[in-house]
Structure formats: structure tokens, C-alpha cells
Amino acid sequence: MLTKRIIPCLDIRNRKVTKGVRFQNNVELGDPVEMAARYCAEGCDELVFYDITASAERRPIDLEMVREVARAIHIPFAVGGGIGSIEDMARVLLAGAEKISVNSLAVARPEIISEGARAFGAQCIVLGMDPVRVANTPRFSSGYEVTTRGFRERTGRDALAWAREAADRGVGEIVVNSVDADGTRAGYDVELTRMIAESVPVPVVASGGAGHPRHLVEVFVRGLADAAIVAGMIHTRAYDIPGIKEYLAAAGVPVRRKW
Amino acid sequence: MVIVDYKAGNLASVRLAFEALGISARITDRPEVVKEAERVVFPGVGAAGAAMRRLRELGLDEALREVAEEGRPFIGICLGTQIIFDRTEEDGGVAGLGLVRGEVRRFRPRDRTEKVPQIGWNQVNVRRAHPVLAGIENGSEFYFVHSYYPCPASEDDVAGTTDYAGATFASVVARRNIVATQFHPEKSGRIGLRLLENFSRWDGAC
């Protein structure tokens, strides 16, 4: 049986893993390569790195860090932030990343999804999207609008329509990061995750709001997520990955137990 | 040992996995280098039609047949595994290298929760002992990314199976000196590295 993936998210700022509600009150947590190796040893199924200062500072992604991570761990990892072109994608993949995550770039230039999928294979292209809850209107019939640039910009795009468009354009996976739930540790937005998961043929990764292992159970069972991103709840060591997996297994959720 | 480069995806993680094991592997797209290799790694991701065209253009199809027929250890990974069969449903039907009898079919999901491609860690049920699977526990999980799966014509060529979207498919194919995995051992952590290390020591007999 295909297992549900648990994916720690490492926000990178100046070569350090940071925490905090994104872009604010950042606290340094440690070295990205060391933390990746530790989570890998603890049984995480995949990792995602967001170079959160790269695009703001208009500099390319830290390829040396990507290379070091690729030498240290032998499980898939995705890299996002600071990717502006097909050439940037190629450099990140050649440095050893399995996937590239695009968010603001895809909103600005949706054709980058199809170009990337054609050039490297759909499995390499992950769409990150940050939907915020809005009033149900004909324009936002799903009740969610896509935001970009760390939630600061509204795009005028309906979240569900955008997810479907990205799937039609050949994206390999969609990370649904709820703006409302992000940083709250009060649980994922289960309805949002389920709505997208039921509407696209590609895997959906839930993100934002994980604070307790039961939140993962909810988003896998009721939210139909294929994978879930965790950050604060493990970075603070409130929980660890083996403990989360044990909890999930006890709740009947298939997880990888041997590594 | 050589890793065959036919511009079908990124070889970085395959190279890095062998590097982590202290095994030197040369990446090559030259048929004469493949023909001289002691053992061959045949990876790949992407579309089968384009991949077969490139193999022919580079003259690698003949080189791979030669190596396989001479009994040298050969491992296929993901798209590489699919291409060693007679044919695949992908791209409207594409002829493969025919090193193992059988064909490659597309997953047909039964409902919306069965996503294609299959992406993630799934169990491999060991059907028979094989030197390349030495030390790997039955039911261990490996990392998969694929929309098509191998169907060997002979049960004898199935060394391990995996269940997905209503299909039980051959996730480890083994025939004489050829072993081939639908999953990515190079991205399957410690257990995947064990499989690659086993391959690097295998004499091609089983």
C-alpha cells in the first residue's frame, strides 16, 4: 500500500533554518544540512527547502547548499524560492534536488509549469499555492483566493480553478498551504485540502497548521491528502517523526515504518 | 561500472548514491564505453517514446543488448526498467529493447483518491531470493514515481511485487544477469543504498 508521506519544511534564511510565521520574527534553528540529515535518520519521507530570502533579495538560490544536502541524504527533496526560469530549475535539479517548487513564478507565468514539465518531467514540478479564505462570490466560487509573496499579494485567482489549471498544465504535485491555518498549530484546513484533492488527478500535499499528530490523521483521512508538511511542531521538538508515525499507524493511516 | 546517460532525466542522485557508497561510476552516453563496462546502470525518467529515439540515435540500444546478452550485471531503474521490455503502452505504443519478455501498462485509477502518477513510498513484497535483494526485509518501502508499470510475460522474471491502484505489479524484475526496479533505489534511503551496494558486488549469476 502506498504510504502517506511526512515532509518537514525547512525555511532557509541566510543559510540557516529559521522559524516563525513566515517572513516575521525569524529565529535561527540550525544548519540546513545537519537538520536534513537528522530528520532523514528519524524517518521523514521527503524534505522541502524554501530559500525564503532568495527572491526578496533577487539573488539565485543557494546551489552549494542544495549540493551539500544531496550528498548528505538519499531521499527526495524539493527546493523552492528564488527560481525565476527554466535555467534556474535545471541548475537546482543538477545540484541533486528531486523537485522544484514554484509559487509566485507560476502565478505570474503559468506556462512555466508546462515548460518545466516538458523539460524535466511532471514529477519534478511542484506547485506551491497559498490560498486565503474569502467570501463565496462568482469570482471565487471555491471560497478561497490565491495569494503570493508570503501572503502579501492577492492574485484575483480562485484557488480551485488555479489548482485545476496547474494540473492541466502538467504539474506533478500541488502543495496547498492555507494562509489562515499557517503558523497557528491548530490543524490543517481540512476542507480546503479535501476540495483540491478531490478535484485534481495529481497528489496533494497539505501544509500549514500542524501542531499535533491528530492534525495529520485528520488531513489524511478526511482531507484526502497524499502527504503532509510539518514544521514548527517538530522544529521545536514538541514532537518527533517516529512519534508522529506511531500515532498515525495506531490510527490506521499507512506510514513507512522501516528506514 | 557505467551509468548510461541518454538525456532521460537527472542522473545526479544516482551518481551521488554510488559516491556515498564509495563506488566510482562513470556517466557516459558513448556506446563503445557501455560495451566495455564491467557492469551497467540504466536509469531514466520521462517519456518512453523520446527515450527510445535517443537510445537509437546514440547507438546505445545495440550496446545495451550486447552487454545484457554477454551476461554482465545490468540494473534498470524506473524508465530504464520499462524500456527493457518488448513494448510499452506509453506514447501510443512504443517498442522497447526486448531484453525481458513482457509489456508496460498504465495505471487505471478506480477513484479520485488513486492518483497517477504514483508518488511516494510503497512496500515491495519479495517473491524470491535474489543476490541484489540480500539483507532487504520483505515488505520494505521504496520510493516510486511512475504512471506505467512492468508486466513480465513470465512469472519467473518477477522477484518482487507492489500493489497500487488495483494492480499488483512487478516492482523488481530479475532475469539472469538483469535486475530492474520500478522504484528509485538511489532515493530510497539506507535500504535503497543497500540494494545498490548489493548490485555493485553481484557477479550477474543467480
Task: Explain this structure.
The complex is a heterodimer of chains A (259) and B (206). Chain A has 259 residues and is α/β, with parallel strands linked by helices. Chain A has a single domain (5-250), classed as Aldolase class I (TIM Barrel). Chain A contains 10 helices and 12 strands. Chain A has an 8-stranded parallel β-barrel with strand order 1-4-5-6-7-10-11-12, surrounded by 6 helices. In chain A, helix 8 (213-221) crosses helix 10. Chain A is globular. The model of chain A has no long low-confidence stretch (mean pLDDT 93). Chain B has 206 residues and is of the alpha/beta class. Helix content of chain B is 26%, strand content 30%. Chain B is built from 6 helices and 14 strands. In chain B, the strands form 3 sheets. Chain B has an 8-stranded mixed beta sheet. Chain B has a 4-stranded mixed beta sheet with strand order 6-5-7-11. In chain B, helix 1 links the parallel strand 1 and strand 2 (26-28). Chain B is globular, with a radius of gyration of 15 Å. The A-B interface holds A 1-5, 40, 45, 70-71, 73-76, 93-96, 98, 120-124, 172-173, 197-198, 201-203, 224, 226-227, 256, 258-259 and B 9-10, 12-13, 16-17, 19-20, 45-47, 109, 112-113, 115-123, 137, 139-141, 143-145, 163-164, 186-193.
Main attributes of the structure:
heterodimer; A: 259 residues; alpha/beta; TIM Barrel; 8-stranded parallel β-barrel; 10 helices; 12 strands; globular; B: 206 residues; Rossmann fold; 8-stranded mixed beta sheet; 4-stranded mixed beta sheet; 6 helices; 14 strands
Q: What is the CATH class name of chain A?
A: Alpha Beta
Count of folded domains of chain A: 1
Principal-axis shape of chain B equals globular
Largest sheet of chain A: 8 strands, parallel, barrel
How much of the sequence lies in strands of chain A comes to 15-25%
What is the CATH superfamily label of chain B? Class I glutamine amidotransferase (GATase) domain
**CATH class wording of chain B:** Alpha Beta
Shape of chain A: globular
Rg of chain A, alpha carbons: 17 Å
> Residue-averaged pLDDT of chain B, rounded?
96
Helical element count of chain B?
6
Q: How many β strands of chain B by DSSP?
A: 14
As residue ranges, the low-confidence spans of chain A are: none
